[in-house]
Amino acid sequence: MRILLLNGPNLNLLGRRAPDIYGSATLADVAEQCRAHAARLGHQLEALQSNHEGELIDTIHAARETADGIAFNPGAFSHTSYALHDAIEAAEVPTVEIHISNVREREPWRRISLTEPACVYQIFGRGVAGYLDAISHLHYRMAHPPLTLSYGPHAEQVADLRLPDAPGPHPVAVLVHGGGWTDPYTRDLMDGAAVDLTTRGTATWNIEYRRIPPAGGWRDSIADVTAAVDALSSISGDHGLDLDRVTVVGHSAGAQLGFFGAKTASVRPVVFVSLAGMLDLGNIGPGFDDLISAFLGDDGHARLQEVDPIRALPAGVSTVAVHGRVDRSVPPDQSRRFVEAALVAGDPSRLVELAEADHMDVISPLATGWEEVARACLGGPVRFEDPPPSV
Ligand code: DQA
């Protein structure tokens, strides 16, 4: 695949321009990182920056013949340029819009993107790492294009459906991404897992959901995840889904939400799989206080009774908690304590500890340990590295 990395006005100043917002990497650094990342995924990358709207438009037109995907940071033109919207639309080259900064938390005019509706996806607020994520997203989208469906009226109430090649009815893995419920982290985090699991013969339903206020908040997030699981009933006929073989798989904060989806949805999953899950919020450590307060609001800790998976047991479903022993983001004892409590509460539960896995490894098909994760996500038997915890 040939990828065009396109940057708009003022991005030539990266590294010097407001480093507190945009970071210290220069545009040349970014282009180099992107080229290396694209090469690792087997793609060629060409990088171009312009401060001129017309030149960007001409480049996008030309990309029709020369590129299979565009990773595009339109800079401030995304807030002003219908012409760029039309160019992206006319070129019909899948384009991922990137913003380095969190445009939803800055001046109100930055929240509006005129170019986004013409793009296949938007990534913002992840720093320059967002460029690499955009390339990964193009890679997985090309490998297996998803069908994006709405399960509700809100723009965030969408999910990507991928179906295996074989005839159905298909088992289904519902994927709930993590990211601490914050706005910048969205379902592309689960693209790799979705494509891999689909190749292994399960349909995947990689869901988006409303996150922190003002767009969402814990009630909306939980309601969305539950609604997304239940939406399988209305699409199962058209897409050949087997509702007796559904698994709900949540990563990190997505495991907190996935737990409630698995517990309360009318479509009953055969297993809830937590990957590096935040499952015992009351004991997760002070480093998470700000995240939890942003998600739960001012009376956050009073809400724990309603939102903390370990306090809401039993789930009424088998659970498998996978956690890397070298997880530097969410402590592995979250999963240990949860599995012990789940067994006491009567949920058949297993703990799978992966010796070498860090936080993001448990959702990466390229990481060691993935075979174990995939088996759990497919609802298959799970091998223990350790004896199951005794109760
Ligand atoms: C930007 C955000 C825009 O609002 C701004 O005008 C830029 C950079 C970003 O990458 O965060 O130039 O696109």
What can you tell me about this protein's structure?
This protein has 13 helices and 13 strands. With 391 residues, the protein is of the alpha/beta class. A hairpin with a 7-residue loop joins strand 6 and strand 7 (158-162). Helix 3 (53-66) packs parallel to helix 5, helix 8 (218-239) crosses helix 9 (253-264) and helix 10 (289-296) packs across helix 11. The protein is globular, with a radius of gyration of 21 Å. 49% of the residues are buried. Residues 383-391 have low confidence and may be disordered. The structure holds 1,3,4-trihydroxy-5-OXO-cyclohexanecarboxylic acid. Residues 10, 73, 75-76, 99-101, 103, 110 line the site of 1,3,4-trihydroxy-5-OXO-cyclohexanecarboxylic acid (DQA).
Outline the fold blueprint.
Blueprint: E1 2-7, H1 19-22, H2 27-40, E2 44-49, H3 53-66, E3 69-73, H4 77-80, H5 82-91, E4 95-99, E5 121-124, H6 129-143, E6 147-150, E7 158-162, E8 170-176, H7 191-199, E9 203-207, H8 218-239, E10 241-251, H9 253-264, E11 271-275, H10 289-296, H11 300-307, E12 318-324, H12 333-345, E13 349-354, H13 370-377
Parallel strand pairs: 1-2, 1-3, 3-4, 4-5, 8-9, 8-10, 10-11, 11-12, 12-13
Antiparallel strand pairs: 6-7, 7-9
Helix pairs in contact: 2-6, 3-5, 8-9, 10-11
The structure holds 1,3,4-trihydroxy-5-OXO-cyclohexanecarboxylic acid.
1,3,4-trihydroxy-5-OXO-cyclohexanecarboxylic acid binds at residues 10, 73, 75-76, 99-101, 103, 110.
